[in-house]
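FAQ

Q: What does a record look like?
A: Structure on top, sequence underneath. For example:
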């Protein structure tokens, strides 16, 4: 009996060590993720405002963390941070430029997500062709990949239209078709017509006139998603999952981590109206990890670490108001 108790204590100690080490690593990963996000937003501001030099990188970094903290903590698909960012950035640059910069960066963030999902389809197919035993192409997975492919193509078309012509006025007109919001939408458009047209012109201008800023912002935002997958990879390695060991094993584990991140974020964003995406993120991890032949317990472990990390960064973000 004494031996069993000691064994349980040792197991709990080991779990605690893995948990703490995992949290330290994931905290560091997200410091870099938010840093890359801030650099991406900085490129948008530089391409969109003549007063961009007035905004330091560290101020953008702070607004990035706080904005995402508000997004995580609020419903409606994580839109709580954008009004805050506009309000704060308006203290440094022109209000219209601040508005268009925040909207452009939010678009870029979503745009990069779609590209992560899109490229992950080909990554999955590539691993199947390579002969990875953990990645299979069943009729169900083939159908889901096909649906995701079409979904991403439609999104790319809509984004291209938005980047070329602006989308604020069109979005408000679309909102006006929702029962009960038609009157509000019309009044808002009439009252702020000139300002909204100016914002739409600035959104279109970045894509047309400063392609370097546009594409560098996009590549940075996409890179941040790849760096984020290191968090999942490290947690898998902590519990002894490395796809066979060696360079090849670590490479496959990293590629699997990208797939897990992609399909978890797709699932979470499809049902993104819940505050903190309660239960959605956990389910997404368990489903995406199970699709790669791993246990639901592994998915639960990864999701718990991610949830605790998320809460810590929310506290940091809200504490920096």
């Amino acid at each position: 009996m004494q031996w069993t108790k000691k064994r349980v204590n040792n197991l709990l100690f080991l779990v605690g060590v893995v948990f703490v080490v995992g949290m330290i690593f994931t905290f560091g990963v997200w410091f870099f993720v938010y840093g890359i996000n801030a650099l991406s937003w900085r490129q948008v501001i530089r391409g969109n405002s003549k007063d961009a030099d007035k905004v330091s990188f560290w101020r953008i970094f702070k607004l990035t963390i706080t904005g995402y903290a508000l997004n995580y903590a609020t419903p409606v698909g994580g839109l709580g941070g954008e009004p805050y960012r506009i309000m704060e950035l308006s203290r440094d640059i022109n209000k219209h430029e601040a508005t268009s910069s925040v909207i452009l960066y939010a678009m870029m963030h979503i745009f990069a997500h779609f590209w992560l999902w899109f490229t992950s389809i080909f990554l999955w197919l590539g691993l199947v062709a390579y002969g990875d035993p953990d990645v299979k192409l069943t009729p169900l997975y083939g159908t889901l990949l096909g649906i995701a492919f079409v979904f991403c193509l439609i999104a790319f078309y809509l984004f291209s239209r938005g980047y070329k012509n602006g989308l604020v006025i069109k979005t408000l007109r679309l909102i006006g078709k929702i029962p009960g919001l038609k009157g509000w939408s019309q009044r808002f458009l009439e009252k702020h017509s000139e300002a909204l047209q100016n914002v739409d012109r600035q959104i279109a201008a970045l894509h047309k006139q400063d392609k370097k800023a546009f594409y560098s912002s996009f590549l940075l935002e996409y890179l941040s998603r790849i760096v984020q997958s290191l968090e999942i990879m490290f947690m898998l390695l902590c519990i002894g999952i490395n796809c066979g060991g060696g360079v090849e094993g670590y490479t496959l584990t990293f590629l699997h981590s990208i797939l897990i991140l992609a399909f978890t974020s797709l699932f979470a964003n499809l049902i993104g109206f819940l505050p903190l995406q309660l239960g959605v993120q956990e389910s997404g991890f368990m489903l995406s990890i199970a699709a790669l032949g791993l246990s639901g317990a592994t998915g639960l472990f990864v999701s718990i670490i991610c949830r605790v990390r998320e809460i810590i960064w929310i506290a940091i973000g809200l504490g920096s108001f």
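Q: Is there anything notable about this one?
A: Residues 17-319 form one domain.
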